[in-house]
Amino acid sequence: MRDVAIIGVSQTKFGELWDSSFRQLIAEAGLNAIEDSGVGGNDLDAMFVGNMTAGLFIQQEHIAALIADHTGLNPISSTRVEAACASGGLALRQGVMAVASGYHDIVISAGVEKMTDVVDATPAIATASDQEWEAQQGVTFPSLYAMIARRHMYEYGTTREQLAEVSVINHKNASKNPRAQYPFEISVDKVLNSTVVADPLTLLDCSPVTDGAAAIVLCPAEMAKQYTDTPIYVKASTQASDTITLHDRKDITTIGSTKVAAKKAYEMAGVTTKDIDAVEVHDCFSINGILAIEDLGFVEKGKGGKAVEEGITHIDGEIPVNPSGGLKARGHPLGATGIAQAAEIVWQLRGEADKRQIDGAEIGMTHNIGGTGGTAAVHILSR
Ligand code: COA
Predict the structure, then answer these.
(1) Of all atoms in ligand 1, which is nearest to the CA of residue 145?
(2) CATH superfamily entry for domain 128-207+235-382
């Protein structure tokens, strides 16, 4: 197996982007990542694109071919990767494995979703849950995570204010991120008093509906310095699965796939939680910002709420979480999220994150899940 490096990254602005189509978004992200990497378009051997459900959002399938064609990369090998909201993380992992195995040298892993063209995104997003046992019974993603939040509050005494604080920190970080969907600060009071979506979660506990794309260029580590002075190395790329339904889990306050993928990633990279300087976690709802730091091993189970309240997840805290603003405030274009998380960690490790820069960041981590954790992908990156 060969070591793998990231030599180029990019992310479009995230938001409700009426003036950009699906194909324009992915082309913008892809071409900017290629430019950032210093490779030529003709040097690319393969492309993996994370996308959850273009069929439902824009009535377009066969997107791998569409993107290769629209970006002028034909006859490149182009493959779509789908694992709900973890599609981007898995597209990155497919790219890493293709380069590590020696099958391809220069690969682009990207992600894209155009969610705002439908009147109601909720039924499309709900296809990431179990149709027979969950969606068709009327549950939605906000309500699934609301049940997890209630249980966490009951089991561990997590407070409503602690959940709100996850969103407050994300918005503070996003206010320093020009690519974020919601680059403004909010307060705990504002979260508590915003519209109830699924009790106890309000509008400001939820990630939004987002258009956007992101892309990453990978190559063998030994070739990276030909293209860039600041390669970022992939130290671990792991993936795990859990039950798709919540009711099949022994404990709905733990996401088993996150725990397994994280454990394998620490082993593969030869690091512990103490070595991680920056982490982008999958906080699609505020409760997930708490579950993630517990299941990734940064704090003990049940102590996540208190840890957030004490401020350890701030950019200048002990474990800086989501310097980008996270899914909550940077935005969550499902298939693009896993790639955008890795792009943010690359900017942090290169020292290019401007006002949201974490001082001296050398090792970073991304955590991307699908649905309520049926799939999890974890990456550890280092300078
Ligand atoms: N955070 C902050 N503001 C939000 C927001 C969010 N999550 N969602 C919408 N808004 C804002 C909009 O910008 C808009 O502001 P404006 O009036 O100033 O223009 C206003 O709230 C109303 O927006 P609208 O699009 O009508 O909201 P909505 O009620 O249709 O949708 C949610 C709100 C929370 C239901 C929707 O964002 C949602 O479904 N989020 C979850 C997405 C999801 O499940 N992702 C997968 C996770 S696994």
Answers:
(1) 48
(2) Thiolase/Chalcone synthase (3.40.47.10)
